[in-house]
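DATA SHEET
Item: assembly model
Revision: 1
Owner: S.N.
Input lines:
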Amino acid sequence: MPKWGLSMSEGILVDWLVDEGTEISVGDEIMEVETDKIASAVEAADAGLLRRRVGEAGEVYPVRALLGVLAPASVGDAEIDAFIEAYEVPEGEDEGEAEAQYEFADTVAGRLRYARRGGDGPAVVLIHGFGGDLDNWLFNIDALAQQARVYAFDLPGHGQSTKSLEEASIAGLAGALGAFLDAVDVGSAHLVGHSMGAAVAASFAGDSPGRVDSLSLISAAGLGEEINADYIDGFVSAQSRRELKPVLLHLFADSSLVNRSLVDDLLKYKRIDGVQEALQQLAANLFPGGVQQTVLAEKIAALGKPTLVVWGAEDQVIPAAHAHNLPGATVEIIDGAGHMVQMEQASRVNELLLGNILG
Amino acid sequence: MARKLSMKDAINEALDQEMSRDPTVIVMGEDIVGGSGSPGENDAWGGVLGVTKGLYAKHGDRLMDTPLSESAYIGAAIGASTCGLRPVAELMFLDFMGVCFDQIFNQAAKFRYMFGGKAETPVTIRAMVGAGFRAAAQHSQMLTPIFTHIPGLKVVCASNAYDAKGLLIQSIRDNDPVIFCEHKNLYGHETDVPEESYTIPFAEANIVREGGDATIVGYGLIVHRAQEAADTLAKEGIDCEIVDLRTLSPIDIDSVVESVENTGRLVCVDEANPRCSIAADITATVSQQAFGALKAAPQLVTAPHTPVPFSPALEDIYIPSAASIADAVRKTMAP
Amino acid sequence: MNDVFPLGKEDLLKAYRTMKTIREFEERLHVDFGRGDIPGFVHLYAGEEAAATGIMMHLNDKDRIASTHRGHGHCIAKGVDINAMMGEIYGKSTGACHGKGGSMHIADLSKGMMGANGILGAGSPLACGAALAAQKLGHGGIGMSFTGDGASNQGTFLESLNLAAIWNLPMVFVVENNGYAESTSVDYATAVDSYVDRAAGFGVPGVTVDGTDFFAVHEAAGEVIRRAREGGGPSLLECKMIRFFGHFEGDAQTYRAEGETEDNRSNRDCLKQFRARVTEAGVIDAGALDAIDGEVMAAIDNAVEQAIAAPLPGAADLTTDVYVSY
């Protein structure tokens, strides 16, 4: 059972997608797993012959429970039985490290929540978008942490960070990014931004190029003028599940991902004191009437940083065409994904990110 | 930050945060500080079950112990709310409504209407409700229907700590008189509760469990019994949807109707006595609005038409049980 | 005889105008109600004008009063517009409460009039709340409740005395003792001879005055109100007075002795007494008072005309203003 994000403790093995006796390659979709937050296919991290399907469809398993065994044909069944018998779900958090799930940093931009994963390796900072939080990276943070020291934080006005915005602008949020880097003692980092977070990353890079090692811009704001006003206005004004759910359908190519838990969590966030004001201010300043006010394409290009642009082909919030507005960038537009491409096509996105980070 | 908080502590936090935010919020009730005038400890009790403990140290004389005169101090809270304060008055047990009900239902509830829209009565009255505490007949009732019946009052009853904090903050900020019911048996129940202040709108039921076979409607402690029943039924292949009403007036009847239009089966559960209960009220309204969708007669599972008994053996069968709820669902599934 | 008046000429004229307005308002209602023009019930304050007027002259809009079912006098003395009052009594949409409350629930919060009340004794806790708010907000206002000799037996009244005492609230409890609670004599219904004795039992100081003597009321009220404002806590002011009419209009008043009402009208009319005193002392001449009489009559006539001509509330008004938001 995989661990997606920081708060997952168990999941349902919905169904197997491959039979016993199948030769599996890395990246093959092998099972469907569902948590109360999300449902997704699990891609094989290893290759091999699927000898035993240990997990049963419809059952709940804790994270890191044994669900299947890959072994060469030469290994006997008795040995596999013994392995399954002896397997114990590892206790506690990540390998050895008694890390808190989330931490808080007191910065000049206020109190910011963040998560840190991974040990050695280049510093990477993940920056979410408008109305999002660090859990938007739940399918990415662990994969990246295999080879990097990854930080994901909540922007002011979002998640569990301070809800007061000193300056409701891209520049203001870039300032918060800088404050965060200072607070966690990171001199320079590879920046990965999604949607509004991408514009924040780019703006910061423009002002403090010495602190930015590379830019990965996913479904980015800041590369063109168009943005879906219905989505932004709908998101800001929705007061109930009935009003919010249809708005959230804009975010994904696969509408089944907009489940009750997603809607509820966003509603709970929107109801926290200060959030409504913060979102309204940001929307009014950043995208009034569906027109982005801050377009940074030329500025970014001039920086000469290794730059990756990733988009979902079916993005209903910011047109995928914007991906081509950045000369000199590596561009990939992925099919079968909408605005939240980092969730819908996580494997491919992780691959691309690591490519840009590790060079 | 969200951390696990008990419903009792969530209520305390809501009061604390609202008092910090708004200087016109005052809190009064019997023993809500405890020890007033006594030689020993001040803040001796912090409420009979400790719900308001610690607030006095932070907010001083904005917390006021009251004498045993409900009609006087509940009335004073109501009167003060029309004069620029935003009082939160505790009626220790909702069962005590008898000694102050006029102030609530004839005064607070009716000012706005009688005075042609010119009065605002932003008072919140917190009270304990519910059975299971072995507190017997006069300290265990679920009198929500009586207050729900009165135009001009709002009635809230949360089933968990997250809802309790958000709904209490909403109640205090609301400009109408609100009866905020706290189920005494849920004070210890813990859920994730954000540290920050937040609100939950009234008239928004929470679908705490999704399912396509039958709709179970309840509030307060009953929601937990319904979950137990639903777990049992799930093993029999019956998937229940559970609607936690959260607020009884105003009530989110639309969510119940929507659910019944999907499942076709309705089971209304209520810890109140059966005549004129919330269960009866919802059954009638949903039957009227969604009659065509019903595949079976609606079922009501309520306490019996008796006072609350003392003996644990009797009290335990007084409150609708998970088993009785499951039986009611099975009845709706019978061909 | 040297009559020293604690009020100047302007205030005296104002006092007379207020009392005369109350008197003629009530007398007019008596007539119109008798003709069947007015829906529901009215409880008339005629005969008691000196009490409301003498007390209310010390109050401003920040001071809040909770009245009784017999609230017209309190309303007028507190400054509520008589056109709005008459409109309300006629159930018209131009009424003080848009026709939603009627005679027994006239209120004007902007003037500190927290409402006439159909539940006797209910106003005392509410007025304590007003006093509590004044205390917490520090704006110098007071709370005042009016109860009759009957309602002063209600538990709410007694509890309020204790509450006001322990919290040292800036409260005045006015007991309007007109001898009858509906048809029941105070001699029967109340154990103590004086409500001041009762207040003493609750730790609240009090004073009894002749409620038909404007000057006595004015002086005593001034003292207890000052005490409240200066942080001296609650007081009880018992005004012994006379109501000219029945408990409600339509009350045959057979509980009264024969000739009692005629005797009251002749010998205990606070307006007659006021007029006599100020004219005999040469402070105000009769002509000035007559002029006020004329103006008041005209104002009342006008109020009734306007009320009759005003529209009734529409069907849509039935369901408005139950809540601020729902």
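QC remark: The first strand of chain B starts at residue 2 and ends at 6.
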